[in-house]
Task: structure prediction
Amino acid sequence: MTLLYNIGIGAYSIALKLLAPFNVKAKLLHEGRKETQRRIKELRLEGKVVWIHAASLGEFEQGRPIIEKIKEQHPDYKVVLTFFSPSGYEVRKNFDLADHVLYLPADTWRNAKAFIQAVNPEKVFFIKYEFWHHFLRELAKRRVPVYGVSMIFRKEQTFFKSYGGWFRNMLKTFDKLYVQDEVSGNLLAGIGIINYSVAGDTRFDRVRTIAGESKDFELIERFVASGQKVIVAGSTWAPDEDILLNYIQKVNDGVKLIIAPHEIHREHIKQIEEKLNVPFFRYTEEAAEPDKARVLIVDTIGMLSSIYKYGQVAYIGGGFGVGIHNTLEAATYGMPVLFGPNYRKFKEARDLIEVKGGFSVKDANEFNRQMESLWDEPDTLKALSANARQYVDRMCGATSLIMTELFAED
Result:
């Protein structure tokens, strides 16, 4: 199995090199790995070092609360942050709380040995899904403790199959696995791995911090001032937008919509505008009378996590495509969260439905009925909002648990 694994890793590296001239992501990863190889030849870290590895941007957000606490509580530690994906590295390569941000080299024995020797970590954290055979073996050989953070497991994974022994051996190299739920813990226990703790998901700690640091937007405050019924729709795609725009043009003037599309290029914003027959404006336009508009189109990035606080109901896009986007950023403000039918891969969406703080809608008619019910029954809306907030409150605390256990003596 190790031979097949090595062949696969080698083939992937060759494919990256061949695709680099024609594919932006392949080029970024290929060139980024080369840059990492150059940098680690010069890198000799002294003192206490923590290495945190995240596949991409989403996993980084799960690891970020731990980095922040390390730097706050143990500033003598150096932090090395690695990414597998360009979509994570390119966005966070200048993250100021990390002393070094690098691409993870290809998982070969030689690369693993050179990287770990250069970084010389005292503790290592792999976030959520990352399992790299040679890195884990080299860390075990050097007796460097390795911890899994916000991990979640499904019975369909190879670890739990009769032929999954080689993969189970990777799990056994972890000193402790901090998993998101009891289901994951029971799956691990079923294959004889008991060094786990049900800690929850560190993303909850992150979204709570984001909400506490939310920004105020005077233009949006003017827009919502004349309406007590505001829907905030985040990370929407065309199928989501068709439902939302159809709805806002059928209901009375008391309902307003803030829509932050996933794609904000000019052509897409224009497509949204062409579908509207009610007063609207773009955020970047600085409308003269925003309070008289029914729809605000957010055509810039970096605002969404703060904008949710201006709504009474949230809609999260992506559920009519490959899957929904981040529901927690909205739920933490205490509001019901609606989304399309493709949500089952996302634990927090399933949980929100279970606690009656979230709802899936399969089409425009179901969305319209759900919104009518929410607006017509204020007490129910208030209760559902409390359910969403309480769910986030209950799930916070994973970061504190991990820090208490692993840094108590530092």
